[in-house]
Amino acid sequence: MPLLEPKPGALRPRTLSGPAPDRVPDRASTGTPEPLRSELAELLGADKVLSGVSDLVRYASDASPYRFLPQVVVIAEDIDDVSAVLSYAHGKQREVVFRAAGTSLNGQAQGEDILVDVRRHWAGVEVLEEGLRARIQPGTTVVRANAALARHGRILGPDPASAIACTLGGVVANNASGMTAGTTRNSYRTLSSLTFVLPSGTVVDTADPLADEELEHAEPALCHGLMEIKKEIEADPELVARIRAKYEIKNTTGYRLDAYLDGATPVEILRGLMVGSEGTLGFIAEVVFDTLPLDRELTSALLFFPSLPAAAAAVPLFNEAGALAVELMDGNTLRASVSVAGVPADWAGLPKDTTALLVEFRAPDEAGRAEYERRAAAVLAGLDLVAPVDSVTNAFTRDAKTISGYWKARKAFVTAVGGARASGTTLITEDFAVPPSRLAEACEALLELQAEHGFDAAVAGHAAHGNLHFLLAFDAARPADVERYAAFMDAFCRLTVERFDGSLKAEHSTGRNMAPFLELEWGPRATEMMWRTKRVVDPDLVLAPRILLDRDPTAHLRGLKTIPQVEAVADPCIECGFCEPTCPSEDLTTTPRQRIVLRREMMRQQPGSPVLDGLLDAYGYDAVDTCAGDSTCKLACPVGIDTGALMKDFRHRRHSPREERAAELAALRFGAVEGAARLAVAAADKITNAVGDGILEAVTGAARRIVRPDLVPEWLPQVPGAAARTLPVTRRGGAAAVYYPACVNRIFGGPDGASGPSLPEAVVAVSERAGRPVWIPGDVRGTCCATIWHSKGYDAGNRVMANRIVEAAWGWTAGGRLPLVVDASSCTLGIAHEVVPYLTDDNRSLHAELRIVDSIVWAAEELLPHLEVRRTVGSAVLHPTCSMRHLDDEAHLRAVAEACADEVVVPYDTGCCAFAGDRGMLHPELTESATAREAAEVTARQFDAHLSANRMCEVGMDRATGRSYYSALLELERATRP
């Protein structure tokens, strides 16, 4: 046992709200039962089978209001794994559900038996025919696919609000559409072909000319059954007319019965049926989309109306004018959106009934945009708009930043409103469509119905297509609240179908919560065709039973999840999953959403619960230790939940008083610590040069076992040698800025074998060269940005160093009259923002007067205009750091790089390297996992330069790629050297 184990019980919740009615039962504490665990491990390999109770719990929740605990989770790597699982399930009479991003809102990604993760190993985009088509793996996010297409001026048709996280497999399986897709740009209309695996294990590529012949040979009964259903539908003119009419508006309720009308062969029928089938008919292994032009000339407006019906009445006018998007947001949505960064604070004071329309026109050229602006002006002239708060302009704009802000507020609908709900309540997202001409009438009826049942829901949606969403919050732990929700749902479904002949699910797919109402919308004849389709394709009901089809009239009330209160920073989480793609530990241990999901399950338990003990045993490593603490989850979360901050707090809780005191002493005596660290690095460099890395690897490995892996770094061959003992000599007189070389650049040197100046020498040289000289104070040694302590949760040491650096910076900069230029992006972030909560009141006032500037920004804004570039490299690949994302400095890094290189590339899959100071040395597996996709892109070709802006991130990327990364400022110095 290590000498310094974390403080026992530190992560145990201080108060438990359980036992909750939906808590994981004690019998699940041992995880996956036998022989299921051992049989799947033998079939697939133990590394592909997740079986601990922590694994099962973190996969039990998704973005929906439901929660179902799987028996086991399988990480499928390829089609062979999928086929093997399906074959096993057939033989053992088990059930299989596929899960990718887990962003679906109706429980489609949840199962109670075998859950198969088809995200981790299923990402990739191949651009075809200069962007006219794209072959995409199902675990690829919409944002990632569109990034690859943007270089060709193309885009995918579907554009769901969750594009940052949702994957194309799920988009197709749900026929998700979004703001602009409507009924003409969705997956059903823009899918060229797909490859899928049937429940039997048969693989079908609909683009293969021999696909029908091979399917007939492999699955004759299936082919015959599909063609029989087609004949029966086509022989019933009334049913044919009904099917065609249902798809004149957005509709994802049930199976796409028009597939039988649009397809002439079994393969063509299956191609249509797979769209919107929610994983109940097969696994979508690959998709090929026909892409659409990316019209870049935009004009947009956010227009405010006195009421929801008034806004809805204006929608047809903008549709007729040619608007591509007309998005509606009611007063509750607008007020909740103030939690989203960039949204005007005065929206909080909007009157209750105020409603806004976000209207956007897109054109391929300037002439087209000008024509749209003329039409928009004509519509505006006839509208009665309101401006109840100062920020409202009610005007069309071309400004990209303003337009982006409008869309950020709109896309945050579910998360912002959900984050503002009462603590402890469950969020339900409903999604329906009516003929656009009846939208105003439907809005009035919806408001009346909500009031009748005691709900004050938030409403938003794709008004151009008659498609609205609304959110309801209630306490799933209270039977009376569940009954109220059930009564509302019955009334709402009857209203939508009987009064408006609308779609109960317009784009979110049927899922668990609309399955009981399928026959209400479609009628018995069409519903029976859907049941027959399921039996023909999946006769043993292996795939996703009770999703999409369910004869239980109360199925939508089964599995509703309670939301116990957790730590305040995480409590607003609605488990949407937007944070997951940006998380460095996503493919290693847990994601921010899963860290919160696990915490909530702890709260559902009661003292002494074996489930609670099992979750706590795993949480230390899976959640706390392997969190990079980079807080990029905060950037991805529409309401800014910082799970990284929560994990740092947990690290603090785990510290013993002795650890905290030692960390505080290190801060108090950091001058000596810094000197000793530099000497240790120099000694290590001499040892490795003499005898290699083996000795240091063995010594640090032994120390990690004796002390604790989370305290003692592992020696890595990529660790650079020591920095020079002295810093460049500079003068205070005439200096344009104070230059603060970060302690990491005072301890570690540049890339091994590199010639030329050190980073401090380069910064001084280029600044002098540009006529903007900098001064390095003589007493910088012994100071630090405090990130060392902040990232590890050492609060006392953090306070010591945070106050020391601010007091020093105040003196160096003459009370803030000169900017403080910092040469490591994480240190810039630390001094500019992260130290603030730890400052005394007096020092907080001093800090407010400081101007903290990252050295990359200093170079881009202050130096480049005055420098002559004398030589460039052919190509450079960039690694923007996560701190640069927080500081919004990525464009400056690109600007510096573009001055130095003829070609500059930012990998599509760039992300946090997770080196995080020394975390990549404490847990090298974290950096290896976090950088895998970016490294694959970088090493797929040669680059002349590999540039970044933080020494330890550069070390992490060195280790990941085998290439030598260094500061972009070193390249700028070389490029401008006389």
What does this molecule look like?
This protein is α/β, with parallel strands linked by helices. It contains 41 helices and 25 strands. Strands 12-14-13-16-17-15 form a six-stranded antiparallel β-sheet, sandwiched between helices. A five-stranded antiparallel β-sheet has the order 5-6-10-8-9. A four-stranded mixed β-sheet has the order 1-2-4-3. A hairpin with a 4-residue loop joins β5 and β6.
Summary keywords:
978 residues; alpha/beta; five-stranded antiparallel β-sheet; globular
Strands in their spatial order, largest beta sheet: 12-14-13-16-17-15
End-to-end gap: 59 Å
Coarse structural class? alpha/beta
Helix content: 40-55%
Mean pLDDT equals 94
**Poorly predicted spans:** none
Number of helices: 41
Globally, the shape reads: globular
DSSP strand (E) fraction?
A: 5-15%
In short:
About 45% of the residues lie in helices and about 10% in strands. The chain is an alpha/beta fold and about 1000 residues long.
Q: Topology, pairings included?
A:
Blueprint: H1 36-44, E1 49-50, H2 53-58, E2 72-75, H3 79-92, E3 96-99, E4 114-117, E5 125-128, E6 133-136, H4 142-150, E7 154-155, H5 168-174, H6 187-190, E8 191-197, E9 203-205, H7 211-218, H8 220-234, H9 237-246, H10 258-262, H11 266-274, E10 283-290, E11 292-293, E12 297-305, H12 308-321, E13 325-329, H13 331-336, E14 355-363, H14 366-381, H15 400-411, H16 413-419, E15 426-433, H17 439-452, E16 458-462, E17 467-474, H18 479-499, H19 511-514, H20 518-537, H21 592-604, H22 610-625, H23 632-636, H24 643-654, H25 657-668, H26 670-691, H27 694-706, E18 737-740, H28 743-747, H29 759-769, E19 774-775, H30 787-792, H31 795-812, E20 820-822, H32 825-834, H33 841-849, E21 852-854, H34 855-863, E22 873-878, H35 882-887, H36 890-900, E23 901-905, H37 919-922, H38 924-930, H39 932-938, E24 945-948, H40 951-961, E25 966-967, H41 968-976
Parallel strand pairs: 2-4, 3-4, 18-19, 18-20, 20-21, 22-23, 22-24, 24-25
Antiparallel strand pairs: 1-2, 5-6, 6-10, 7-11, 8-9, 8-10, 12-14, 13-14, 13-16, 15-17, 16-17
